[in-house]
Amino acid sequence: MSSGHKTMSAFLAVIGSLIAVILGLCVRWPLWAWPILLGALAALAGLPQFLGRRRRPIIPPEHTLEPDLPIPPVERWEKIVRDVALPSRSADYDFLFTAVVRWIPSDTAHGAEVSFAGLAVDAVLQRAADVTAAQLPHRASLVQHQLSGELATMVSDPSGRVRAMAEHVEVVLSDTDRERLDKLATVRKNETVWEHERKWEQSKRAYLGEDVLSSAGSAVVWWLAKNDDRVDRAVADIGLLAQLTAVANDECVPERLHPYLSDTPGFKEAEKLREEAPDTLADHFTRFMTSTGVEEDDPMKLLFARRVAEAAKAAGLDEADTLTRLIDTWEVPHTESFQQGDDPAEGYEEQGYAP
């Protein structure tokens, strides 16, 4: 208990005793009550001292190794850095870094010889650059949150003289870089869509050209698969399908399908023009081959036709080249009856077509 507390306690004890004596005289207390009053006043005066001794520690604070003194507040320093360019994963695109750098010196003995601000800012920027270098530039918002967590802890710099952190982190891109990235993203998206459309078109052309329109029969089968309940319509459209197949393969409609072309649009006009036009050597030869009854899959048909074309060319006929091109369009399956080095004429004579 301090001296002030002791003085106040004694003063109150004296005042209380006087009040008790005056009250006792006024009411004329009996003689046996005065000793009790004096004892109560003495107990009341000693109670504060007793309570103060109970609260006092066993070992006085002045005799302890670490006196219970107030700890001085830790002094911190800070500096604002603005729009510092940090690298990204894409070349020529930098993040702009803004933050409040805070630090605590660790080596106070050399405080006058070291710029703690420079060490702290360099340490924070190095930690930030390690994060941004692995991120894409259009992820600036995500990078900002990552840096806010990464730089939120005091970490010593490589020299060990300062511990630094950063607060109020902001990461943005320049306006020009953001516009360029937006344009590039739009171009990439359009290119992806165009590439898918091109592949889809190529697939569709391959399906139609190599499968559906590979022959008139394939076209008819495809039409029936699409309209399995319209067989009569399929028969009526054989001529159109045959013409479409011939055009798709740059060929003429086979003669066996000509009866189906009589009702197709433009066929009669084409037939009329062909009848009015003078017959060519190719026309005469085609009718001749039809009249002989030679089957289209006869392996000797192509050999005979080529001999005729060679003879026409040797005779100097003007339409020999046209006849040769016509024969080149004929398709005759290859057989194993003629091996490399054999004379085709021998097989031709064996079939009874001696020239």
UniProtKB/TrEMBL annotation:
Lineage: superkingdom: Bacteria
Region (Disordered) residue spans: 334-355
Protein name listed in UniProt: Uncharacterized protein
Entry's transmembrane regions: 7-25, 31-51
Organism (species): Streptomyces zaomyceticus
Record's keyword terms, sorted: Membrane, Transmembrane, Transmembrane helix
